[in-house]
């Protein structure tokens, strides 16, 4: 086998530098002879400037970068002017929160109204253990981010007031707005059992782990979807719906609501139900708890089967008494055998 090469006469033209403009939030601009020069000036990669200039990223280190050829105009005498209208249009399309992520001070506000000021997002990241992109997304309101790590974030310029002498003070009304916002998205929940005992959890995942159930089971109780009132013998509620604040700003539990929720937890458990096997033999139980104990299966499995989310539990069809009983002439509830037959037919299809 012969391997050779073809001689080619190729000439290369040196790439011309691409002048760029760096433009800040207020429309101030600087011209650089090349992306490399701009990168060196701002201590960022040339690639990042290139991607910004090509609209792959809105900003780099708080600046918009635009190729000179897009905003420069030459008159008849060859004098170059900058098209400021084009700059204005470019800036208007970019969310202000994308500017100065690393240099503008930010405030972090939690659900208690406690606030902290940081020199920039990176400092907040280091102190709170929350990634800078998440902080930035909260400020911008992007990708569904409302809070990060239990905090709402805002730029200092949106939280502070400055008087005629240049003295800076925190706008407490704005802090209250941010506190309310943090509370509205707080994921803290309470689990309440049928005896009125309650436990507090940071979120649904933590509670699910504690009770060895799926977080989705807790979610349907919280939202009321599919008629779920309990999961694993507990009802669940958002902290904001059960906590109250006194005149001194101290948070306490609303015990009246605890009682309401305890009744809710008991409501499901006290419902009588029937357990029916494949041959039509049946047993009646006064509650799901009693059925679970007698049949040696979990109360959650009984609850799921009774709501028809599962066909059976340990081979038993479980039916709430209200769906299979009728009343005799004396008003006493008795088993409706026609309904029993109908249930068995559906089951054996």
Question: Which short descriptors sum up this protein?
Answer:
4 domains; three-stranded antiparallel beta sheet; Arc Repressor Mutant, subunit A; disordered N terminus; 13 helices; single chain; 349 residues; alpha+beta
Describe this structure in words.
By secondary structure, the chain is α+β, with helices and mostly antiparallel strands. It folds into four domains: 20-94, Orthogonal Bundle (Arc Repressor Mutant, subunit A); 106-184, Arc Repressor Mutant, subunit A, CATH 1.10.10; 189-268, Arc Repressor Mutant, subunit A, CATH 1.10.10; 273-347, Arc Repressor Mutant, subunit A, CATH 1.10.10. 34% of the residues lie in helices and 21% in strands. It has helices at 35-42, 46-53, 68-71, 84-92, 121-128, 132-140, 172-184, 204-211, 215-223, 255-269, 288-295, 299-306, 337-347; strands at 20-23, 29-32, 64-67, 72-74, 80-82, 106-109, 115-118, 152-155, 160-162, 168-170, 189-193, 198-201, 234-238, 243-245, 251-253, 273-276, 282-285, 317-320, 325-327, 333-335. The strands form eight sheets. Strands 2-1-3 form a three-stranded antiparallel sheet. Strands 7-6-8 form a three-stranded antiparallel sheet. It has a three-stranded antiparallel sheet with strand order 12-11-13. The relative contact order is 0.06. The model is unreliable at 1-8 (pLDDT under 50).
